[in-house]
UniProtKB/TrEMBL annotation:
Its job: Cell wall formation. Adds enolpyruvyl to UDP-N-acetylglucosamine.
Protein name: UDP-N-acetylglucosamine 1-carboxyvinyltransferase
Enzyme Commission number(s) of this protein: 2.5.1.7
Record lineage: Bacteria, Pseudomonadati, Bacteroidota, Sphingobacteriia, Sphingobacteriales
Binding-site residues, UDP-N-acetyl-alpha-D-glucosamine: R98, D320, M342
Reaction catalysis annotation: phosphoenolpyruvate + UDP-N-acetyl-alpha-D-glucosamine = UDP-N-acetyl-3-O-(1-carboxyvinyl)-alpha-D-glucosamine + phosphate
Gene that specifies this protein: murA
GO-annotated molecular function: UDP-N-acetylglucosamine 1-carboxyvinyltransferase activity
Organism, scientific name: Mucilaginibacter xinganensis
A GO-annotated cellular component: cytoplasm
Length: 435
């Protein structure tokens, strides 16, 4: 049995949808439970593969995991089995999960050593982990790569606070170094730190646990090491990538959709970027309401030149939503240049959109120009395979707006990032079935 979605497109959707908890925040917060022997309760956890794998991995290490509600777990990391980190089971599980890199900082901080298999994950070009390792080294960790078993072994029995200028404002790198620094001796200063809301959430949670962190929300974090941390409760933010995906979906399918409980003030530029594509949206309480729109027109710059949408570190526009913008622009009036600066090969799914009838010029691995069809021509349904999480959802949106039947294969890529996406869209009236 293949695992694929069969979609009959071309019908408007209607109703309310609630975004899941933020995947990228979950991976950091769940790793942070290793910093204390006391109980930590986390709610609004998304039910998706990458997060469930990490919860399972924590259980295998000896963390007491209790499921209190469908989206709420408690974690107690009293007795961690150190031998587990050299086992084949850890190599297999840790190696298949990109988020497993996030457990290294907490383990170093609390136990003075860690082993980590070489990570795998999404195919979106080279994602270096140097930022993480260079940061640990500056704090005094020493590590060597053992090619015979494919593990990095790290010794951090003597972590000391220091000044760290990150080579890139990596979210996971910043989070990992913060978690290592909270229990290091002395003061750590991290400059060019990532400022994402998810990282702010981590810092706020660590502060409630007893960490001393100042500069939260800025790119200069100062951390005074403490000797131990306590338990706390934490609720994850809604996933901003899902929120952006649903805005794009509404526009593309001429649907009237209300996105519930979005934590609007944490969305940064996301609503404004979709407005630049001509999409009307209004804030009602903490919900985003999107009316059904027959047409939407891309703005130009003030001098009349073509709009460019590019990603950059927070508070810039997140790279995870560029593929959504690209798809939404297909049916807009006007043209836009989509510039994907942070990753190469994230735009390599445009060939599928061209097969569906889109007008896109792929300029190079980082840039694509979309010439909007202004709903004059409907996309055609086709069979296609999803290359990564974000492109998968973009193709799903294209398929829902297209005429006729589309089949999307390799949907486990989509399900790594979006919980029960088919059921939630069917509730809005989408015609999707699994085959």
């Amino acid at each position: 049995m293949t695992n694929a979605f069969e979609i009959i497109g071309g019908t408007p959707l209607k109703g309310e949808i609630t975004p899941q908890g933020a995947k990228n925040e979950a991976l950091q917060i769940l790793s942070a439970v290793l910093l204390t022997s006391e109980k930590i309760t986390v709610s609004n956890i998304p039910d998706i593969k990458d997060v469930n794998k990490l919860i399972e991995l924590l259980g295998d290490m000896g963390v007491q995991v209790e499921k209190l509600a469908p989206d709420t777990y408690s974690f107690e990391a009293k007795n961690i089995d150190q031998d587990f980190f050299l086992s084949d089971a850890f190599k297999e599980k840790g190696g298949s999960l990109r988020g497993s890199i996030m457990i290294v900082g907490p383990l170093l901080a609390r136990f003075g050593k860690a082993s980590i298999p070489k990570p795998g994950g999404d195919k979106i070009g080279r994602r270096r982990l140097d930022t993480h390792f260079l940061g640990f080294e500056k704090l005094g960790a020493r590590f060597d790569y053992d090619p015979s078993n494919g593990f990095f072994n790290v010794d951090a029995s003597n972590l000391k606070g220091t000044y760290i200028l990150l080579d890139e404002a990596s979210v996971t790198g910043t989070a990992n170094i913060v978690m290592a620094a909270v229990l290091a001796k002395g003061t750590t200063t991290i400059y060019n730190a990532a400022c994402e809301p998810y990282l702010q959430q981590l810092c706020k949670m660590l502060s409630r646990m007893g960490a001393k962190i100042s500069g939260i929300g800025s790119n200069l974090l100062t951390i005074e090491g403490v000797t131990e941390l306590g338990g706390t409760e934490h609720r994850l933010l809604p996933d901003m990538i899902e929120i952006g995906s649903f805005i794009g979906l509404a526009a593309m399918t001429e649907s009237e959709i209300t996105i519930k409980n979005v934590h609007y003030q944490e969305l940064g530029m996301i609503p404004d970027v979709f407005r630049r594509l001509g999409i009307k949206l209004e804030l009602r309480g903490d919900d985003i309401y999107i009316p059904a729109q027959k047409h939407y027109e891309i703005e130009t710059f003030i001098d009349g030149s073509i709009m460019t949408i590019a990603d950059s570190p927070w508070p810039g526009f997140t790279p995870d939503l560029l593929s959504i913008c690209l798809v939404v622009a297909i049916q807009a009036k006007g043209s836009v240049l989509i510039h994907q600066k942070m990753f190469e090969s994230r735009l390599f799914f445009v060939d599928k959109l061209l097969d569906m009838g889109a007008q896109i010029i792929l300029c190079d691995p980082h840039r694509a120009t979309v010439i909007g069809l202004d709903k004059q021509v409907q996309l055609r349904g086709i069979s296609m395979t999803s290359p990564d999480i974000r492109a998968g959802v973009s193709l799903l949106i294209a398929a829902l707006s297209a005429q006729g039947k589309s089949t999307i294969y390799n949907i486990e890529q989509i399900e790594r990032g979006y919980q029960h996406i088919d059921k939630r869209l069917i509730a809005l009236g989408a015609n999707i079935k699994r085959i």
